[in-house]
Amino acid sequence: MRRSLKKWLRSGPNRIALSTAWRGTIAAATPLVLLPPLGLGDLAYPAVLGALATSMVDVGGPYRSRLVAMLIQALGGACLLLLGGAAVGSWWTAALVMAAIGIISGMIRALGPGGASLGINAATAFLVGLQIGEIGGGQGVVWAEGYAGGGLWTVLVALAFWQLRPYRRLEQEVASAWEAVAALVAAIAREDESESVVARRRREQVIARRQAASREAIERAREALGEMRAGTAGPGTTIAQLVVLLNAASRVAAAAVTLGELAAGPAAETELRQACHDVAHILLAGKGELSLAGLRQRLQPAPAQTGETPASAAPLAWAQALRHLDNAEEALRLLFGRRRRLPDLLRLPFAHRRPRGAVVSALRANASPRSAIFRHALRVAAVTALDAAIVVRFRLPHGIWLPLTSLVILQPDYAGTLARALQRTAGTIAGAAVAGALLAYVHGSAGYDAAIGLLLFATFLLIRRRYGYAITFLTPLIILLIGMSSADPWIDLAERVAYTIGGAALALAAGYLLWPQWEREQLRERLARAIGADQAFVAEVLAGLARLEAAGPSLASLRRQAELAIANADAGFQRMLAEPTRRRAPVAAGFALLVYAHRLCRHAIALSAQLGAAAAPAEPLHALGGLIERALSDAAQALLERRAPAPRPGFDAPLARLTASLAAAEEGGPGTIAASLLARIVSDVTGLLNAAAAPGLVSRERIG
Question: What is the pTM of this model?
Answer without folding.
Answer: 0.74
